[in-house]
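pasting input
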Amino acid sequence: MKRVALLGMPNTGKSTLFNRMTGGAARVGNWPGITVELLSGKILLGGDMVEIIDLPGIYDLHGFSDDEQVVRHFLHDNVPDLALVILNTTQIERQMSLLLQLKQLDMNIVVLLNMSDEAKKFGISVNVAKMSALLEMPIFLISAKYGRGYPEALQAITKALRYPTPGMAEQLRSQLEQDQHIETEMARVLKHTVQVPVRLSDNLTEKLDRVMLHPWLGLPIFFAVMYLVFQGIFMFGQPLQTGIAGLFTWLRETALVPALGGLPQVLQGLLLDGIYNGVATVAAFIPIIILFFLFMAMVEDSGYLSRAAFLMDALMARLGLDGRGFVMLLMGFGCNVPALMGTRVMRSRAMRLLTMLVIPFSLCSARLQVFIFFTAALFSPKAAPIVVFSLYLFSFVAAILTALIFKHQFKNNEPFVLELPPYRFPTLRQMVLRGWLEVRHFLRRATKFIVAGVILVWLLTHLPLSAAPASADTLAGMIGGFFQPVFAPVGINEQLTIALIFGFIAKEIVIGALAVIYGLSGDALSGAIGQQLDWVQAYSFMLFTLLYTPCLATVATLQSESKLLKFTALSLAWSLALAWLVSFAFYQGARALGY
Amino acid sequence: MPSTTLAALHPGETATIVSIHAEEALHQRLLALGFRSGKHIEMIRKASFSGPLQVRIGTTDVMLRRSEAAKIMVCQGASGT
């Protein structure tokens, strides 16, 4: 199968073009010579199947950034039959350099000058025929977003694929050294073919920036925007999540329970509470992930995410992070899973890993459910909001502390020089495609892991079969008993330890697990817990719940996004250690003070 | 002609790049974004709390930290190309 590689600088609309070509039928895959996964899609072109590969956006073919190395290694080990080079027409003056570097590699090249609509608006005119002749390459003006010029470009691509694939020059590096004449060549081509007005007229962006990046108003506006996005995602997301959970319960009660009624009790339990619940857990994330990326596509494609980076950088730079990481951290307060996936916008791997280490400390909506239950059971209605607020503070402090401690291990070496693209309206198509791709990615990567985890916890809480489920005689009870010396000093009793084992799957099921463990539910359960625990124990349990592993889906996402078992293990170990230390300090401190 | 660093420019001021004294990775990135000696550059704004700078070079708006801008020497008032 012939391979077409998409190449271009960041912010050229490369992904938009990729989505237009593949229509969302893309998948991630591994390639020889590189460690990161790339999106690719197969399409029918001129009667043959062709594979389109979306390479990361790069500024320079011999730069030092992670992405630039990926592209170099990819081209070296997987010579494409055609390189489709996408340039942003509005910035053609400087983007031409990448094209000329690629030209030296002797590849089959078709050039697409994208964002022709914007260029026209700015008064930039390009003599395509002349440029094509000077560079000896087919060149087309297109708008990937609206599809103008696209059919003609596709024809040229089909035609170009009929040529034999040239062999990649052996000494890629030495080829790249001959850069000196690129500048003169660039000046020559541009002089004859491109006309740029002295001053660009993009009043809208200028005016918007004057408000959005205002020295005083900028930050309040940023927090207001974040609040709206957050509310938007979780206001629509939570009913959908509840709806999906309801649908799964309904299906279980009306169809599966009667159908499996003939099976032995254990097998029923394993199938329904193990596998089926695992699938239901995965499904509950689907609406949140889709909504998150719908909104994120809006924030990102509109150009606002780079403005957020501008506004928050003063603070985040001290933590070894950048402003985009702060946005993801905030979104983590809704749900950690899509926030972790969203860190992909950060192109420096070290900074991305550091952000991923920090996000699990965001107090997500599932943890909030546990806290509301416990504060209602143990604190007066007047104290309850203060208690929940203090947990939010702990969440922020844990995140900042983690960043400060680990920023030297995950040192970012990439220069912080970012483009501020003009504000643009994203199309609905772009947004929906993004949400759909991300959900597929999550399902493919995380389902097995999550279902296996749910089954494991089911087995732990139900074996040996003679014991009452989730009681002290089960494996989970034994583990709880075994770890009692560890948990006693932080005020967490055996029943709560078993609940923490459940909480490893998802915080949503902690209260349900407590109901099984105590054999009570609703007000009776909160009454019993209120009787058994004092507020110091309860607060210590909440601190532990806040800081230790958020849920299996988060662990699965940490692993699928980092592809580093060591990193996932570090995140698990660090959050457990921090949870224990903080709970210990609090519990022993409060007891020492006489509470 | 007074020569200063890019970081010292005030919002609204324009200058011409004289030279870039950055390590290789930063230098490459700046080159790719259009930073070359002789180029016109305009300071658009500076973020509060010693935050990053927004500059305009050619048709591109770029943000960079003050520490990085301090490595770019510019000359005010001269007419560049």
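fyi The interface with chain B takes residues 9, 59-60, 62-65, 90-91, 93-94, 97-98, 122, 124, 196, 200, 209, 213, 215-216, 218-219, 306, 309-311, 313-315, 317, 413-422 of chain A (CB under 8 Å).
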